[in-house]
Amino acid sequence: MPHETQWADHGIEWRYFGHVTADEARSADQAFYSDPRSDYARYQLIDLRDVTQLDFPESDQELSAAIDGAASYSVPWVRIGFIVPDDRFDKALELYIALISKTSWSAKTFTDPEAARRWCENDDESAMLKLRRRLALDA
Predict the structure, then answer these.
(1) Which of 10, 89, 97, 128 has a Cα at 20 to 30 A from 72?
(2) What number of other Cβ atoms are within 10 A of residue 2's Cβ?
(3) Residues near 132 by beta carbon (within 8 Å), at least 6 away in sequence
(4) Per residue in 51-87, pLDDT tens?
(5) How many structural domains are present in the chain?
(6) Please, which domain of life does this record's source organism belong to (predicted)?
């Protein structure tokens, strides 16, 4: 499997390498959801800087967003930070980010790893403000 996993106090960090498929990413997600630490996770930091090819077609983006969206009911307010080398993976992540943003979770891409970490670990919004922001998106 072309990734490394590192648990942190409030989340999980994955670093991917080489050619990555949606099935491999879902397998990592499954391991995350199977771990009791996921119940208290506040972020997922996903480092794609060493990925040479990302196969994540729209159908897989929809499936992954549906799985994560369902999880958002029991593990709310997770932030997903994608660390990317440049804009080459924008299309492969675009639909997923749009769909997951309709849940209590948030996702965003970054080229700066420290900016991604700060955003993921930042708990500047209260739960009520987050809920209001999400409801406003649906209005």
Answers:
(1) 89
(2) 15
(3) none
(4) 999 999 999 999 999 999 999 998 888 999 999 999 9
(5) 1
(6) Bacteria
